[in-house]
DNA sequence: CTCCCGATAT
DNA sequence: ATATCAGGAG
């Protein structure tokens, strides 16, 4: 586990690497963002961004998504994967937006998670990106990076990772750090082929040092 | 815990 | 061929 000084070095290094890291899901309002994040479960942002332009052109309101048969919406998002459950969740989400939330995406996480297909991670993204609330959404990248660097314990659940990060990172830096960790994980500390040899954080990374030994021996 | 699931990288 | 991708529901 990293100490205070090391955590500061991690935050500063990531800021230097990705000073302008931000949400890469294309969207023009909180409703589109929520749909995009829901669709991005177990899919890459790049793929979601290929599908959403036509999708957002066709469906502009909750009513629009409810006006077509489920099968039609399924076909419109099929390429993203998990399309049956996602299509069903989108229509359920739109129904409850109209019935329970006056047609608007709620701003609080506790309200957001009541929507179908919206769990804690998606709610954190929406409340943070769309409404500027401080939050750390722990996705696959944030979890992997946090565990490799030692910002949390290896055995931590996703919620425990989030709590560890919120405790160790100043609240004012939550949202920026969150996006920088996404970029760091997506483009540098990748799941399959991490760039350890050229990593500025290798000196304090348990996992990176292990990998260095491995490649040196093998 | 399992299931959902196509696209892409390795 | 297999792993992974801005997870969530049952």
Secondary-structure element string: HHHHHHHHHHHH
Low-confidence sequence ranges: none
How many individual helices? 12
Q: Briefly note the structural class of the backbone.
A: mainly alpha
CATH architecture of the largest domain: Orthogonal Bundle
Determine the N-to-C terminus distance: 27 Å
Largest sheet, described in full?
none
Mean pLDDT: 96
Number of discrete domains: 2
- What form results from the Cα inertia axes? elongated
Q: Return Rg in Å.
A: 19 Å
Q: Regarding CATH, which class of the largest domain?
A: Mainly Alpha
Q: Tell me the strand percentage band.
A: under 5%
How many beta-strand segments? 0
Assign the CATH superfamily of the largest domain: Hypothetical protein, domain 2
CATH topology of the largest domain: the name is Endonuclease III, domain 1
- Which bin fits the share of residues in helices? 55-70%
Binding site for [4Fe-4S] cluster: 189, 196, 199, 205
Domain HhH-GPD: 39-187
Keywords: 4Fe-4S, DNA damage, DNA repair, DNA-binding, Endonuclease, Glycosidase, Hydrolase, Iron, Iron-sulfur, Lyase, Metal-binding, Nuclease
Family: Belongs to the Nth/MutY family.
Protein model, in words:
[4Fe-4S] cluster binds at residues 189, 196, 199, 205. Its cofactor is [4Fe-4S] cluster. Residues 39-187 form the HhH-GPD domain. The protein is mainly α and 218 residues long. It folds into 2 domains: 4-20 and 137-217, Endonuclease Iii, domain 2, CATH 1.10.1670; 30-129, Hypothetical protein, domain 2 (Endonuclease III, domain 1). Helix content is 60%, strand content 0%. The mean pLDDT is 96. The chain binds a DNA duplex (10 and 10 nucleotides) through residues 23-25, 36-38, 40-48, 78-86, 89, 116-122, 125, 137-142, 158, 182, 185-186, 190-193.
């Amino acid at each position: 586990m990293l100490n205070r000084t090391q955590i500061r070095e991690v935050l500063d290094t990531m800021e230097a690497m990705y000073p302008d890291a931000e949400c890469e899901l294309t969207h023009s309002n909180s409703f589109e963002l929520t749909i995009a994040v829901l669709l991005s479960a177990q899919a890459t942002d790049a793929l979601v961004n290929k599908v959403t332009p036509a999708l957002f052109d066709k469906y502009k309101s909750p009513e629009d998504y409810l006006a077509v048969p489920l099968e039609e919406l399924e076909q419109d998002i099929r390429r993203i994967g998990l399309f049956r459950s996602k299509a069903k969740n989108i229509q359920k989400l739109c129904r409850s937006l109209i019935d329970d939330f006056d047609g608007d995406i709620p701003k609080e996480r506790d309200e957001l998670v009541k929507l179908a297909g919206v769990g804690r991670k998606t709610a954190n993204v929406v409340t943070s990106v769309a409404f500027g609330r401080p939050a750390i959404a722990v996705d696959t990248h944030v979890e992997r990076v946090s565990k490799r660097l030692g910002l949390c314990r290896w055995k931590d659940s996703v919620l425990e990772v989030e709590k560890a990060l919120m405790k160790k990172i100043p609240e004012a830096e939550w949202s920026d750090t969150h996006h920088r960790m996404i970029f760091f994980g997506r483009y540098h500390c990748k799941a399959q082929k991490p760039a350890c040899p050229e990593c500025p954080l290798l000196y304090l990374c348990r996992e990176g040092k292990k990998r260095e030994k491995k490649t040196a021996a093998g």
